[in-house]
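User: I'm curious whether this sequence folds into something compact or stays loose and floppy. Could you predict its structure so I can see for myself?
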Amino acid sequence: MSRFIGIRHEDKYVMERRAPLTPKHVERLIKNKMLDIIVQTSAKRVFTDQEYLKAGARIADNLKDCSLILGVKEMPESFFEQDKTYVFFSHVIKGQSYNMPMLRKMMELGCNLIDYEKIVDEQGRRLIFFGRYAGLAGMINSLWSLGRRFKEYGYETPFLKIAQAHHYASLAEARKVISEVGQEIAENGLPAELGPVTIGFTGYGNVSQGAQEICGLLPVKEISPDKLLALSQRSMLPGNLLYKIVFKEEDLSAHNDGRAFDLHDYYANPADYHSIFEQYIPHLTVLMNCMYWDARYPRIVTKSYLKRAFETGRPKLTVIGDVTCDPDGSIEITHHGTEIEDPVFVYDPVTDKPVMGFRGHGMLVMAVDILPSELPRDSSNGFADALVNFIKPIADCDFNEAFEDLDLPRAIKKALILHRGKLTADYEYLTEYVK
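Assistant: Here's the prediction. I'll summarize afterward.
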């Protein structure tokens, strides 16, 4: 049982300004749940120390007095202490090699680890997430990138009025600007040489829905993947209308034996499927990659495809908004996530190298891997709304009990990766990665 709950300052990225609990949520926990909360001081967090003090929290340089510590991103190995409980996005569930030293250290110290990513309902749907805000910021950034890339091609468009997401004081301010851009496009259109402007979305979950929400501020018409293939064959399409396409699993992959696509079988046996997405890429202006991916599944955009595409001239595809941001993943040219202060690169398929910025020969990719931190106040509020009701049960839990006796909500118990330094049953597969 926790005497004090700590909120750690974020230090993995310079521009990481989010918090797992906001001052209003802290005030609610202190007043209504009688919890003691210590907030580690931070000069860059979007919520100031003074706001947390006003909410009733204590401000401290360190969290030595806390037995339960909440964060957002990964924590350095030197931060962990014996027998304490940590709640954060650990990014270990795929066996990510870069985080195995951190997991080993937590095991050595007998720590408890709860991962937000694995807090799910009975249908496996995530209950606590930043995904919608990743989609919102990712779409804002991708439209900003589109305007600047079009300018590199010699076209001035209304998209140039859009700024990178973190320059807006709030989501509402960003939405207002993009709505105005949409109105201008509706009234005056876009250069005919760029049309039809098409925006594709892979996936239909929280991330994709957030991205589509921003896209919906523009004059868009949704069409099916099949209609996309016929779209460019039509002449005299209006330049004041954009086209949106949402791609589902059956649009991305097909069975190797030619049998009908079966979603359950696809997730159970992904090696039996191959990508069919390349048929759509030549018809897209922007690709928003918003879906889950791991190495078992076919890639969406490969290096070999891009090399072939650029051999015949500049392709229609202008911007890839890789919100998923898996290194060497579904978008093979995303070798690692970019930072907010240096968010885009152009991948040259000839040299097989990226160059940061908007200039150069090749494909422009926006791959910021902490996109919700570009909307830090809005995203923290949304995240804390989902997290706050789980805090007291976690704080009240006696983690010295045997796993089967832990008094935790089922969703939290399922997200407990480490219990007293040991991998719990659902995560024993990580043993091989830790070694």
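Summary: The two ends are 31 Å apart (CA to CA). The mean pLDDT is 95.
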